[in-house]
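During the reporting period the student researcher (J.K.) took over the structure-prediction task from the postdoctoral fellow and processed the backlog of single-chain submissions. One of the processed entries is reproduced below for the supervisory committee.
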Amino acid sequence: MNYRHVFHAGNFADVFKHALLSVLLQRLKTKDKPFFVLDSHAGLGLYDLSDERSLRTGEWRDGIARVLTRPGAPTALAPYLSAVRGLNGEEGLRWYPGSPRLIRTFLRDQDRLAAVEMHPEDARLLADEFAGDPSVKIQTMDGYNALKSLLPPAERRGLVLVDPPFEATDEFARLARGLKEAHRRWATGIYMLWYPIKNRDAVAAFHAEVAALALPRTMAVELRLEAEQPNRLVGCGVILVNPPWTFEGEATEILDFLVKALGRSAGASRRIEWLVSEEGATSRAEWQ
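J.K. obtained the following structure tokens:
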């Protein structure tokens, strides 16, 4: 496994998925009953942006650094920005939260996180970071196996984040299969599956495969920084199953802001599409 997220921490993809993830977690907190979060491809809890590997790519400069300094951020973005700022003092931007640390920021005493990481070194660092924390359990295993072995939890409410590195050539197919299996085991959870946008045909085929599962209330949310170019990462998206009722409006506000803050050209755009309605009907929309 060659992928190490330290090279990409805080980039536009992190900003996109972590901003939306924060919204989902805030909505889960509106009810007193406990909830469970499964982070199937956790990575590290905390990234040092002054690390030589982060500095080498500098991707965070065109990601979180732009968003933190741009005025006019919508209210829906505030919890995420507050979580990032809370890790950094007056010294400026140095630390960026991985998904386990971000999720932990929003947990209450009654809530739980299972963070799964297959890379042995990263799993060890995660275990060290959350040692003694009763709300967090670290598991060293393949993330897709975790969708079978760790679901369903005791809690009826919660969220499953599937954020693979997309090194495998069949990753889209694995995502669809993983969603089908996980939802069969735990239908009341919220599901959030991240994917890159490099090839529009591949993404369209993935959407069709997910829509064919006919899981009610399935949404695709995408951010594109520029017009499509062959084999170039121009954006990313998430599949959401069972999003909260307020989510579409909040996501729209966030994406409109991110298009302006992170867009590389006039081709920057956002997309929110219901793949499957509440009644189980499929629908296809065009780019907005």
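The committee noted the following: Residues 12-28 form the longest helix (17 residues).
J.K. will present the remaining backlog at the next meeting.
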